[in-house]
Design a protein that fits this description.
- About 45% of the residues are buried.
- This protein has a single domain (about 1-235), classed as Rossmann fold, CATH 3.40.50.1360.
- It is α/β, with parallel strands linked by helices and about 240 residues long.
- Helices cover about 30% and strands about 15% of the residues.
- The protein binds fructose -6-phosphate.
Amino acid sequence: MRYFVFNTPEGVAEAASMVFASTLYQKPDAVFGLATGSTPVDTYRRLIALNARGLINFGRARSFNLDEYAGLAPDHPCSYRRFMDDHLFDHINIDKALTFVPSGIGDLEQNAAEYDQIIERAGGIDLQLLGIGHNGHIGFNEPDERAFAYRASVVGLTDSTIEANARFFANRDEVPRRAITLGLGGILCARRVLLLATGAGKARAVAGAIRGPVTPMNPASILQLHGDVQCLLDREAAALL
Ligand code: F6R
């Protein structure tokens, strides 16, 4: 896995936005895999600015988000659909009908099974953006002692993830305990992967993912098996490499 270390989180976001821009120049109808959480927000802000200046065009792009909380309707203020609308889609010229976020309501097992198929029918993901959890999760694929979760599925969230994400909710009790997520197989099928990590809290997970053994206890370590992964890190996240 290749990694690049920047002095600041802003450097990470700037570089990530350049990768998006170059992808769009090479392939105007690119399919993006997108993430929520705090890490990509600054990247999205820069993409909005580039789009507003007419430097990049999302008019033919499509996107698939990694995950959604179980039980949250798309218009719920804490849903990931709402997050994406607020932080990116409502501010760029993407066709919202071509932006997909897994549905957290209805028959979740079926939603998960269909999600892999919809991505496949779209021709797969050209550029998959990832954050990383403190425990090494990517998407909501949490550490597991036995196996990597290959397919899109409905998963339980670990206490540490519930704790980390409580900041987006009124209190910890409101954080859904389950989510629907693209599986690690779906992530590995992306043609190119861009993992962003900032802050000291991510240093252990990042070191494990890049240098450690490939183990389901650090789900991001499976990216070592992918041939085209770039990790953009700030100094703090890279501290243990
Ligand atoms: C979000 C996602 C998660 C986050 C991870 C890091 O869609 O799939 O894996 O990328 O939890 O979150 P932040 O960036 O908030 O530290």
